[in-house]
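Supplementary notes for students who missed Thursday's class. We covered one full example, reproduced here. Read the sequence, then the structure, then the short commentary at the end.
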Amino acid sequence: MSTAVSTAPTRKIRWNIVGLYLGIVTMAFFCLAPFYWMLVSSLKDPRAIFDNALIPAQPTLMNYEAVFGAQNTFMLALRNSLIIAGSVTVVALVFGVFASYAIARLEFRGKTLVLGLFLATSMFPGVAILTPLFQLFADLGWIDTFRAMIIPDISFSLPLGVWILTSFFRAMPWELEQAALVDGCTPVQAFRRIILPLAVPGVFTTAILVFISAWNEFMIANSMSQTPASQPVTVAIAQFSGISQFDTPYGTQMAAGVIVTVPLIILVLIFQRRIISGLTAGGVK
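Structure (token representation):
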């Protein structure tokens, strides 16, 4: 009797584990299937792009050759995206670290309201401010410059960074900072020598998420960039032409999408431990 009772919970645990793994496999398939289809389509001849084959019958690299052979504009677009995303990441981190530290550490009236405003800013639809931004930047002579894309991206990326870093700073043991003050450190020295090194996982996670967000931005960049000199890679891909004059550019767009996505995937896989530790910070005190 006792043996039957003891095996019932064991079977339940086994079924729970099986269900967990099935859920993980389903989510992985759901996330990776579009990328796999993009990779397969990039290896197909333009005439076979709609054959729905899961594996190309005759794989070819002509789409990749066409991407890099279009007067080298794709490499220029990659450089522009790197400049824009890198600038947005650096500025958002500098302001985000100080803002989130102040919100987490200091007690002041309206702190909850400030966090709510950050959240409201991140939820505000970008299309609603696109026309006023274009008019403002046109008056300033900023159209077709990096500034017209970096500044709006910062306004959308900074709230994300503040929310992540605020939860991370709140989870820190403030006794370490107090001990540093007792040992003779000034508040600035305690922040620089004690708090900031401990915040590296959260800062690193925020940097990657902000960089990916700025790297993938399209709507504002498509409106503000007019020539290849300032166009990021998202706009350049949208303006691709086919391998020949009468081709639909699906193949070259898929190939460019693979080229742009693979470095981000490798970056996340390499630093996944830091990302997870930064995202889970503050979950348990």
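Commentary. The two ends are 43 Å apart (CA to CA). The chain has two domains: 2-48, 71-239. If anything here is unclear, bring it to office hours.
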